[in-house]
Amino acid sequence: MARTIHDTWGVANRAERSRWSDPAIPKAIAKEMWANWRRQQSLRKGERRRRQRGALQPQPVNPHRLRIIVEHEAPHLFHAATDEDIRNVLRRMPYGWLDGLQEIRLCLDRGGRDDEEATARDPFTGRLRTQYGPGVFAPYPLGTYYPRTGTIRLYGWLCDSEARAPVAMLLKLQALRVLVHEVAHHFDHAFRKGRSRWDLNDKRKHEDWAERMERELATSAVFPYIARRYAAEMEQLERWLEKHGGASVRPLQVLYYDGCAYLTLLRAVAAGVDSDTAKGDFASALHRAGANDYARAAVAEVLGRNPEHAGALSVSACILQCEKREFAAAEPLCRRALAADPSCLRAWDVLVRGYAIQKRWQEAATACESAIVHTPDDGRPWPYFVSVLAEAHLHLRDWSSIEADAVRLRHVADDDTEIDAEVHRVMASCWREAWDEALRRASSLLAAGKAVPGGCEELWLMAAKFESAHRLGLPNQAGSFGAAKLRQLEDYSVGENWAKRIREIPR
Known about the structure:
The chain has 22 helices and ten strands. The chain has helices spanning 9-17, 24-53, 83-90, 161-164, 168-192, 202-229, 231-245, 251-257, 259-270, 275-288, 292-305, 310-324, 327-340, 345-357, 361-373, 383-395, 399-412, 415-431, 435-447, 456-471, 483-490, 496-503; strands spanning 67-70, 77-78, 103-107, 120-121, 128-129, 131-133, 136-137, 143-146, 151-155, 157-158.
């Protein structure tokens, strides 16, 4: 099927001059026109690049002769991947993947970041960055590929020599992972894309493909090289992990698959945290990474000496609940943990999650209230507890409590919880059949673009708008909510009966 993207600004002008029942329509037309214009420019740029390159194939590259340039050097700038590391990993790349690659540059990133990931200013440049470990600040981005020049840039970490020592191997693995990721982008651009494409959303597809190749190349190229070249360092790290983490683990797995587990333990040891608490936190991070055998070994070591340790008991309960859905066995462990430490939020989290999964909404609501009460005085309740509390009140038809839940969600105050609060109010209006209110609020939030596109909040708002409009006899305001959306709605605990009700609406 042919598709045209030859829209002009005149399309937008005519749309804006015309009269529409919904003011969002001309805005949507203008937005689509602008996207089509960008597609045109992307196609033209890509075609010019292809013609300039001509019919010649990219030239073969010998990894041992490839230019590797250190663009920036400073005492505080740590290039974790050395010249030797880079060449040996590139030598393990699939045949032909490097063809056309011109050079690799080790340099300083051009700026910090200003999003929620920025946790501190580094003392060397004064820029906002993510603090990766004690005294170690991450560049942003970690690396880039420039297709016009066939250049890969790997950016250095900011830290002094003492701070980098405990995380040197972790940063090396990270740098080599970024290297093979950017090599995948080079191969994708040079050989897979072919002619320019009209869909600008392909960027996400290319990134997903590069991430998948990164995982495969890490297994085939990075892991074998690190294990052979740095065997002594890996053995030393394994002893350190066993001593401080309570489990004999394979360092490469801990470092690569979830460096957060190692960093969690490293920070705890550096801060002088109690040994059992540090091991419990380490086990929890391992469990989140899916390394349950290692997590079990770590908590077993703690519980062998301290059978009522709240942190270790809650991790054991979480493993039982997540891995085998053994809710009956997990609940008593949570209760034991809370008896030992009523402020153990990890135990409350596991207990609340178990009740919600089992749809035991009254018990979930009671557990959420208790968890909020036991939140430390200097902190705010976890948004998860307040969100589950609101969902429980929805299922229990406790409409008066949902308004209080919305106020609590706003108190937790960030963009996600603010829209969560509004969406629960819309759902409450819809479920108690206040159709006018539900339609007005849902339409307003959707038109304002408050919900993340494709997220659950947007789906729930669309369902509320669709049902409310049809119940009011206003199908022209209902919007679209087809079979695919209904199946998505059924995947959520709030949507099972809701989707059934929507299916019964006469069309």
